[in-house]
Amino acid sequence: MTGAPASSAAWDDGSADDRFRVVPAAYLFLRREGQVLLQLRAPELFMGGHWAAGAAGHVEAGESALAAVVREAAEELGVVVDPADVVPLTVQHRGIPGGPALEQRVDFFFAATRWEGTPELQEADKATDLRWFPLVRLPHPVVPHELVVLRDLHDGAVAPIRTFGF
């Protein structure tokens, strides 16, 4: 590996070290009868005390966004979601211009209306509550970059690609 630090993983050969990079994440909104499942983030976490997608997390190296959201649903909610039942909503490029590299993100938002099992909190250290909310009466506060997608979902007009924070 030319120019790569000795600790680089096999998938990162260092060839893009001079390129702008973004952190990918995947979000899943479970939906039923005009409602969406949201979790309340633990106070000590990023956006602690805010309501957020029932399942979400970073896309791991070598993993697709679709595989990530299916994995997160199992890890965070204890449900099995068939990838065929996952509907893409939007891709959101968000960031803080001139901000830290860690805050330059690309978020893949999905929805599902079918799954196996009963959604229950699986990670008590990350979330303190899990509830269904009507899209017309969302709780307060909701993570801001997720709220814009939920409002679009309510309005029935989710743009396939959006930006946030620019």
Question: How would you portray this structure in words?
Answer:
There is one protein chain. This protein is α+β, with helices and mostly antiparallel strands and 166 residues long. The chain is 15% helix and 32% strand. It is built from 2 helices and 8 strands, in the order E-E-E-E-H-E-E-E-H-E. Strands 1, 2, 3, 4, 5, 6, 7 and 8 form an 8-stranded mixed sheet that branches. Strand 1 and strand 2 (35-41) form a beta hairpin. The radius of gyration is 17 Å and the shape is globular. Mean pLDDT is 90; it is low at 1-8.
Layout: helices, strands, pairs:
Elements: E1 23-32, E2 35-41, E3 51-53, E4 55-58, H1 65-77, E5 86-94, E6 105-112, E7 127-134, H2 144-155, E8 161-164
